[in-house]
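Next up, sample data.

:::
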Amino acid sequence: MIAPLVAAEGVGRVFGQRGLFSGRRPVAAVAEVSLTVGRGEAVGLVGESGSGKSTIGRILLGLLPPSEGRVLFDGIDLTRIRGAALRRLRRRMQLVFQDPYVSLDPHRRVGAQIADGLTIHGLAAGAAATARAAAFLEEVGLQPEHAKRYPHQFSGGQRQRIGIARALATGPDFLVADEPVSALDVSAQAQILALLADLRRRRGLAMLFISHDLPAVRHLCSRVVVLYLGRVMEEGSTEAVLTSPRHPYTAALLASAPSLDPARRRRSAPLRGEPPSPAKPPTGCVFRTRCRHALPMCEQARPPLRETGTPGHRAACIRDGSDAGGA
């Protein structure tokens, strides 16, 4: 078992939503989420848009405080530290954004933007920071002279490499990659995924890979956590979850994903309907309103995550999960 570097324990996050006549009311974006990321491990966090994936990523980075539960980073409770102690830890955790162009300042040279992290955290300054920024560009497959260019002078894939170089500059142990390839074309996606996999191996990075792209998760991650309406539906090894899903939601996600294998496409039906509003989630199992296997008892109680028979593979379903492929 890989020792966890990052651990979320019963994490929840409630936001206030303003109604037309009712004022602000609480909306649970994330509820009772527990997950771990081991040292050097890549964990995939998957689910539809609006499922709470990015919220969890920001909570794990200490950028967003949880409303309940706690987050441990290398044994330190992020919810209890402030000021300089929190800044020291933040050097060890970084974020790779979804849109590489929006995340870069169009009016500054990319080398200067990479050097910012070095300067802010007191790791290097002046010419030393400039030289190290150029070295990080080389590490991600660009040229040192690219440091003098502006973001608009690069392709989308190259800009994402710059974003990764900026994240690497502080020497992080933990990287949250939030949909890092969704804004890129297919060839650039493959290259960025290969780069992330290589960096993880060489640097021993722990990584939370947030995505709705199941083939990308299969390529990069050893474990996967499936999220729906802010709650964990299934978790386990990538091979177990994506090959033998035990929750109808996971099976439906797989059926909705593009595949060249018609036999796999026929094994389950894709998702139907739209997710309910997090402001008014269904009682009992939150997936029951879209589940073809829903039973009357699904409305009464929220099923806990339980072992499926494979060590480490758990699903939140009252059924045994053996027929989830027919979701």
Summary: The first helix runs from residue 53 to 60. The mean pLDDT is 91. The first strand starts at residue 4 and ends at 19. Residues 117 and 169 are 6 Å apart (CA to CA).
